[in-house]
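User: Could you go from structure to sequence for me? I need the amino acid at each position, not a summary. Structure tokens:
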């Protein structure tokens, strides 16, 4: 724009020189003609000179108008540029543009977002996998994001973890919009925002909502949702075990030794129970002194019985470093998927029946539900 302004001024300046020169020639020519008229009385028409003069004036006028309009456009572009710069300074994310045909991604800030240190990434769809910057658990999500880029999905929104400058994995939110030309996807424009702090706060709140406040195990509502979800994705070849646990005579413990002692028993038992279980299994607190364990995709019924036996032994080792004025024991009841039920409620009900069968046998033992003996 600066070059155009200089050229405009130069043209105007040259036009003015031409007008002055033409005027000078006209005056000289008029004087010469006047002399000849005096001598020869010849009348010469000056229309041609007037036309040239008028054309020069029009050219000057057009140049002035062009200069004014061009100056106004430059001023508007400068304002828009300042707005864009202000937006970039105050946005929390990084603006990017992805060219679908060339597989090139350009970023507004090379020191933020994905691929730190670069604002021009060629072969983008494969570069992230080569650099191995995506969290292993989020690679499927990132691959889906790349497929959306390549296919020209109208709107893109996803979240995944990628490495930051220190090599740690942080959460990013990706939002993109695809632009089309003649119904053909051409480019994708979007933002990448670091949401690690917000996401970790959300995960913490979610964890607190899922936990039992005292024992830090899952609460019943969370466990029920997880169990039903597992069952929905299971078939008849899978075996799951639902083990209900009750601390024997817990009310007497609270009455005789106090609620602080009772809470200590609950907390230590929960900790040891959680440590006993395999990674795919989980425990939760139903309420009071009642707990449950869900054994996910076990190899056999014997496995469930063996785990139940180990759970009973936990009670014998509670508070061994303190003097105990009473024995602590627990009773268990086991139900199986799919033999005894196909929902949380069905497994819960029959495990409860088996639990009270154990109580009737004298407590401190476990029982596997049987329709023959307990139906």
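Assistant: Here is the amino acid at each position, in order:
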């Amino acid at each position: 724009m600066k070059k155009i302004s200089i050229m405009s001024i130069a043209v105007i300046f040259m036009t003015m020189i031409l007008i002055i020169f033409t005027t000078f020639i006209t005056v000289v020519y008029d004087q010469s003609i006047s002399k000849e008229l005096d001598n020869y009385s010849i009348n010469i028409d000056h229309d041609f000179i007037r036309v040239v003069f008028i054309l020069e004036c029009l050219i000057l006028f057009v140049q002035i108008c062009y200069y004014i309009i061009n100056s106004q456009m430059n001023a508007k572009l400068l304002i828009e540029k300042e707005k864009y710069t202000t937006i970039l300074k105050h946005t929390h994310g990084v603006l990017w543009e992805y060219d679908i045909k060339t597989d090139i991604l350009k970023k507004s800030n090379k020191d933020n977002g994905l691929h730190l240190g670069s604002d021009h990434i060629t072969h983008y769809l494969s570069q992230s996998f080569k650099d191995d910057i995506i969290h292993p658990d989020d690679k499927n999500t990132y691959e889906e994001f790349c497929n959306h880029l390549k296919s020209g999905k109208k709107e893109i929104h996803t979240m995944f973890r990628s490495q930051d400058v220190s090599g740690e994995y942080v959460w990013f939110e990706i939002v993109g919009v695809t632009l089309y030309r003649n119904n053909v996807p051409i480019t994708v424009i979007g933002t990448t925002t670091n949401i690690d702090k917000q996401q970790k706060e959300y995960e913490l709140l979610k964890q607190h909502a899922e936990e039992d406040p005292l024992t830090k195990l899952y609460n019943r509502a969370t466990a029920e949702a997880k169990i039903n979800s597992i069952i929905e994705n299971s078939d008849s070849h899978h075996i799951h075990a639902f083990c209900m646990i009750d601390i024997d005579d817990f009310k007497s413990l609270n009455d005789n030794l106090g609620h602080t002692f009772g809470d200590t028993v609950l907390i230590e038992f929960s900790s040891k129970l959680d440590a006993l279980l395999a990674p795919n299994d989980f425990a939760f607190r139903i309420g009071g002194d009642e707990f449950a364990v869900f054994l996910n995709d076990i190899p056999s019924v014997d496995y469930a019985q063996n785990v139940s036996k180990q759970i009973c032994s936990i009670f014998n080792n509670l508070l061994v470093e303190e003097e105990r004025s009473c024995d602590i024991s627990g009773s268990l009841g086991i139900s199986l998927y799919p033999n005894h039920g196909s929902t949380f409620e069905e497994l819960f009900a029959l495990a409860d029946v088996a639990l009270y069968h154990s109580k009737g046998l004298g407590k401190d033992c476990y029982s596997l539900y049987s329709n023959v003996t307990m139906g």
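One structural detail worth keeping in mind: Residues 101 and 186 are 7 Å apart (CA to CA).
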